[in-house]
Write a structure and sequence with these properties.
By secondary structure, the chain is α+β, with helices and mostly antiparallel strands. The chain has four helices and nine strands; from the N terminus they run ααααβββββββββ. It has a five-stranded antiparallel beta sheet, with no helix packed on it. The chain has a four-stranded antiparallel beta sheet with strand order 6-5-8-9, with no helix packed on it. A hairpin with a 2-residue loop joins β5 and β6. The longest helix has 21 residues. The chain starts with 5 loop residues before the first helix and ends in a 9-residue tail after the last strand. The relative contact order is 0.11.
């Protein structure tokens, strides 16, 4: 006895077979236990799928489920009004024709927070795996520059501290790790500036 395939029975229970094929399959069901089992299986699957479309979960259950997927600020994230915005990065600039790469020399970045600009130069030390960071904080409005504390942090841990001079300049030398940022203590607010990774160090 020739049996109908699984695809045939799926089409049969979905009522998408032609009339003559459906008639032959219906007649076959009366004499074939194996195909009858397949027909009953796919009938149950089709009914469950149809019932699922009409099912509406309780509103309390839906509210609880949605609350588990509310976007939240990840731990250690510095997004928000106290995070300085990157406005220039030499690593994102097109190279001059004939130049292969300059990433192993230095990288210059410019950040902005309100009326302040933070200029950074990150450079690999020539004889060690340390990184030199030279920075300057400038006001876009004319006014007297004041000194301010600057901290280099990894997550919430302070790695190094210094203070700007009267020109807003500061300098640090450190061993690179992931998740580095600067904290600038400005008007009792800690402005945060990301320190980029330096992939060539340690290679």
């Amino acid at each position: 006895m020739k049996h109908f395939t699984t695809k045939d029975w799926i089409d049969y229970v979905r009522d998408v077979q032609t009339a003559d094929v459906s008639a032959r399959m219906k007649e076959h069901l009366e004499n074939c236990e194996e195909c009858r089992a397949s027909f009953q299986l796919w009938s149950s699957v089709t009914k469950a799928a149809a019932d699922d479309l009409n099912y509406a979960p309780p509103s309390d259950a839906l509210r609880i489920a949605r609350s588990q997927f509310v976007p939240s600020k990840p731990a250690g994230s510095f997004l928000g009004e106290l995070m300085a915005n990157l406005v220039f990065d030499t690593a994102q600039q097109a190279l001059t024709a004939g130049v292969r790469s300059s990433s192993n020399v230095c990288r210059q970045l410019l950040y902005q927070h309100g009326q302040r600009f933070i200029d950074l130069r990150v450079e690999k030390a020539p004889t060690t795996d340390e990184v030199s960071l030279i920075g300057q904080i400038q006001e876009s409005t004319s006014g007297k520059q004041t000194t301010m504390p600057v901290a280099l942090c990894c997550g919430e841990r302070i790695i190094q501290q210094t203070q700007t001079n009267d020109m807003g300049e500061f300098h640090m030398v450190f061993s690179p790790v992931e998740d580095l940022h600067l904290e600038l203590d400005i008007c009792e607010k800690k402005i945060r500036v990301r320190v980029p990774e330096f992939p060539d160090v340690g290679k």
